Amino acid sequence: MNEKLRNIFASVLDIPLEEVTDELAYGQHDKWDSMSHMMLIADIESNFDIMIDTDDIIDMSSFAKAQEIVAKYESE
C-alpha cells in the first residue's frame, strides 16, 4: 500500500518519488495546494476503491496521515 500511495503522491504532485516521505505536508510543499489536494483524494479513492469522508479529507495534512487514513478504509 505504501509504495502505491507514494506513487500516487509523486504523480499527482509531479515530484520525484524521493520527495514523498512521511514529512511531506500540505502547504509546506509548493506543489501541494488545495487543487492538488483534491486531485490526490480522487486518485487515492480511485486506486484503492474507497470513499474518503469529509473529515478525513480535511485531516489528510501529510503523507504520513494519508497512510493512516487509507489503512483505516482498507480495514473496513
Automatic annotation (TrEMBL):
It comes from Pseudoalteromonas peptidolytica F12-50-A1. InterPro entries: ACP-like_sf, PP-bd_ACP. Residues 3-62 form the Carrier domain. This is Carrier domain-containing protein. Transmembrane segments: none annotated. The lineage of its organism: Bacteria, Pseudomonadati, Pseudomonadota, Gammaproteobacteria, Alteromonadales. It holds the Pfam family PP-binding.
